[in-house]
Amino acid sequence: DAGVTQSPTHLIKTRGQQVTLRCSPKSGHDTVSWYQQALGQGPQFIFQYYEEEERQRGNFPDRFSGHQFPNYSSELNVNALLLGDSALYLCASSLAGLYEQYFGPGTRLTVT
Amino acid sequence: AQKVTQAQTEISVVEKEDVTLDCVYETRDTTYYLFWYKQPPSGELVFLIRRNSFDEQNEISGRYSWNFQKSTSSFNFTITASQVVDSAVYFCALASGGSYIPTFGRGTSLIVHP
To answer: Which chain A residues contact residue B43 at CB under 8 A?
Structure first.
């Protein structure tokens, strides 16, 4: 039973560029959440997708957008990258209505 | 608003010592859920436990135990006879107000020396 997978593992981008991160949920899960974890901090909620729609959103600007596909996989897009966007981006999957979230290994984004 | 405070930034112990990680939470809701996650160097958050606000019974799982006290708004985590493999960052989290999205504390880095 495959867990949550994320790609790529690491990414280096230049300020102003755009980036797309990908996540495949745990088998059987239908809900995907994205978190940003800055160095030395706890994960901060970006948004959650269910039934291909954004259901909840944290306090992040519109530069952060996402998508969920019919197979429940998801993408996180960040436009006009800033140095402050450098972080570990975590994807978590769950079943709608349940609290248990299963996290992927994350994508380490570095913006130079 | 909800908040989780993990006052201990880093704890260093020698193997076989017992260690307690503190977690204090704030919420105005009467129904809420508390969590602990472990984040090893690989980066993946590993779910350890979930507790709801109506169940103050302490829980033990092997060398791990959790002490939930509503009177002090605390949900502390104790590792008995720590091992090097316990070295990781541990996060306490809170979900309340009908939201399934947890708010995380800043984490406590536990270093267990051989």
So the answer is: 88, 90, 105-106, 108
